[in-house]
Amino acid sequence: MLTDLARRIADRSMVACLCAAALCAAACKKDDKGAGTASGGTASGGTASGGTASGGSPGGNKLVVGVLTDMSGLYKDLGGPGSELAAKLAAEEVGGSVAGMQIEVISADHQNKADVGASVADAWYDTKGVDVIVDVPTSSVALAINDKTKAKNKVFLVSGAATSRLTGDLCSPNTVHWTYDTWALANATGREIVKHGGDTWFFLTADYEFGKTLEADTRKVVEDSGGKVLGEVKHPLNTSDFSSFLLQAQSSKAKIIGLANAGGDTINSLKQAAEFGITSKGQKLAGLLVFIADVNALGLSVAHGTILAESFYWDRDDNTRAWSKKFAERHDGAMPTMIHAGVYTALLHYFKAVAALKSAKDGKAVVDKMKELPTEDKLFGKGTIDANGRKRHAMYVYEVKTPEESKAKWDYYKLIREVPADQAFRAPADSGCSLVKK
C-alpha cells in the first residue's frame, strides 16, 4: 500500500522539478517586461455602475466601491469576477446611486500577496476616491487591508477572508466580517464530525494565516468535544503535489484528515486522496472550507459524502434560487458561492447605512450605523452585527450528494442541520476584541 504511494511520490517529484524550472523561467521573463504588479492600484477589469474607473479622483459626487479579490489564482472561482458581478448587482438593486451619489464599482487582483493588496488599497484610498473595499479572499491580504482601512477611516467589508482574528485580537472599528470565519467553520463541521465518531484527527494545513487559524479553531473544537489530534503537516499555498503530505496523514492512522485549506488546494487534496485510495482504506477527509465551486470542479463521484459548512446555498429556498438564477445568467451559468452572496448583501446593508447618514466620508460612523441597523436580506435572512464587527446569521452543515442523488447540475447538497445565528459564531465576549465592553 505505502510502496505504491511512495512510487507515485517519486514520479510526482520529478514532474514538479520540471514544472518549477519552467515556471521560474516564465516568471523571470514576466518580471523583465515589468508586468504582474498592482502597485499602481489600477482597476483590473474595473467597470462602473455610473462610469469607468480610469478617471477616478478623491471626492466628487460619487460613492466608489473597490472589489479587491483573486482574479487569476486558486481562489478565482470562489471570489474573483463573481465578486465583481455581485457588487454590480448590489449597485443595480439600489438604482445605481445612494444619498445622491452615483455608485462606481472598480476591481483589482491582489494576487494573494499582502504587499500587492496593501499597495492597491493605498492607491485606491489616496487617488481613486474609494470609500469601501469589499471581498478580499486570503486572510494575510485581508489583515493588511484591515490596517490600511482603519488608518484611512474608510470601510472594509470582508466576505472572502476567513481568519477569526479580524473580529478577535485584530478587530477594527472600520471592518465588518460578513459571510463566515474560521471559528464558525470549526464549530459547525468539526463538532458534527466528532459527534458521529470522527474523534481522532490529523490536519493538512495551508501554511499562512488562514490555514493556521482554521486548524487552531478546529483543534480546540475537536479537543473540547472529546476528540484527539494526532498530528499536523503544513503545505505551501497553491501546492500542486500533495502526495508527501497525504502519506504523513495516512501514516498517522487518524480517522479524520482535516483539510485546513481552500480553493485549488482543497480540490487537489481531495483529488489526490481519491487517486491514492485513502478513503477506501477507512480514513475520511473533512473539508473544513469547501465551496460549491470546489464541488463542481471535483464532480460528485469524488466529492460525495464530504461534510461541509456554508452560510449560503443557492438552492435553499425560493429567494436564494431567484437571486442565484439572475447571478448565473451573467456568470457563464455558474451558481454563486457564499462569498459572492456575502459581497452582494454586505454592500446592500452598507448602502442602507450610507443612506441613513447621507454621507460615506466617515468610515467608522458608517460601520457604527451598520451595527445599529438590524440586517435583513433575501439571502441570509435576519441578522445583527456584533460590537466586534462580526455579522451574525445562521450557518448550515451539508453533506455532498452522490451522483445518483443529484437531480441536475449544481444540485449538490443535502442539509444535515442548521446552526442558529446565536450559536453559529463566537460570542463577542470570548473574542478578545478591544471594541467589546467588558
What is the general shape? globular
Q: Sketch the major β-sheet.
A: 6 strands, mixed
* Share of β-strand residues: 15-25%
Number of helices: 14
CATH topology of the largest domain: Rossmann fold
The class by helix and strand makeup works out as alpha/beta
Assigned CATH architecture of the largest domain: 3-Layer(aba) Sandwich
Mean pLDDT: 88
Number of domains: 2
C-alpha termini separation: 55 Å
Strand order of the main beta sheet, please? Answer: 2-3-1-4-5-6
Subunit organisation of the chains: single chain
Annotation, overall tally of beta strands: 16
CATH superfamily of the largest domain: Response regulator
Structure, described:
The protein is of the alpha/beta class and 438 residues long. Helices cover 42% and strands 19% of the residues. It has 14 helices and 16 strands. It has helices at 2-32, 80-93, 114-128, 139-152, 182-195, 209-224, 243-251, 264-275, 292-298, 300-303, 318-329, 338-357, 363-372, 421-424; strands at residues 62-69, 97-98, 101-109, 130-135, 155-158, 175-177, 200-206, 228-235, 256-260, 284-287, 307-310, 375-377, 381-385, 391-392, 395-400, 413-419. Helix 8 (264-275) runs parallel beside helix 9 (292-298) and helix 12 (338-357) packs across helix 13 (363-372). The longest helix has 31 residues, at 2-32. It is globular, with a radius of gyration of 21 Å. Mean pLDDT is 88; it is low at 1-57.
Features:
about 450 residues; Rossmann fold; four-stranded parallel β-sheet; 14 helices; 16 strands; disordered N terminus
